[in-house]
Amino acid sequence: MTNYEYTCSCELKSHIYLDILETTKLDKALDQLIDSAWDDDDEESDELLVSFISTAKKETTFISKENLVDVLNSSQHQKINGSANIILTDLNKNESCNCRAVSRRLSVLLSWGLAELKFSDVPNEQRLLEVLGHIQPFAKSFSTDNSLKGFLQQIWNYAIETGKSSIVSKLVTIEPSKIDQLIENLLNIDSMDFDFLSENTDFKILASIVCVPEVFRRVSLCLAEKQMNSSSDKIQTLVNVILKTVKAALPKRQYLNLYSPKLSTIAAILNEAINPDDPLVLSLLTEVKNSCYVDFVVLVTHFSLFINLK
Fold it and tell me: pTM for this structure?
């Protein structure tokens, strides 16, 4: 599902509407049934009833309302990499634009996700991940929609506050600009001193999530791209501070596993290198440089023994 991206050439996207009160109506009704179900005269029957209602409540992921049947009850789901995406179910492939149908279904999903986030004592992490997974193929196409932006911001706030690394990981895949903005904010600070940065709110947020692989890779990419377009010492200083934070939090093997699969082995070699003129290492870096320059910049700026190659 994550490799598919919905695109449309239409200039006007239909708006997404959120209705969390309507979405939570069934949950509240089921809660009331559970509260009123107990009867001291027949405890066994009451337990069965409560079990049944609780199961129904757990399995109810969307409020039954107009325009919802076609989203949820279709037995034929369009498959994307083996996973069913309910937004794509039965979309008219002959239409040049499906944005109206997509926005309507996004409205249902986001309303339910926001209700889960706002009205559950302990939001169900798996359900929130499922919502994010279903909206991911459409996030870029609908990126200017205020309802979608607001929903993603609230999920982001929740994930940061509660330390939900799996949600952070998914959000960074959907909306990497969250990380880019943190980096931009930090580079606008006058001092790059570690103790000073440690008191900065943006740095505290970044430090709390940078050991999530998707975050680490996005941070590395963002800073490498800035290094390619600027000679500012602040960028390298920030790289060093971030690496110091990561290395303090993780053992060496876990730290090296934060790099993408194609870079992790090379990073391990560079981490053990002691000679900046080692011909084998230089040959390896030259190969990386020729194939993907930004990866080369990531490596030489992360391993200071080779920083002069940049």
Answer: 0.78
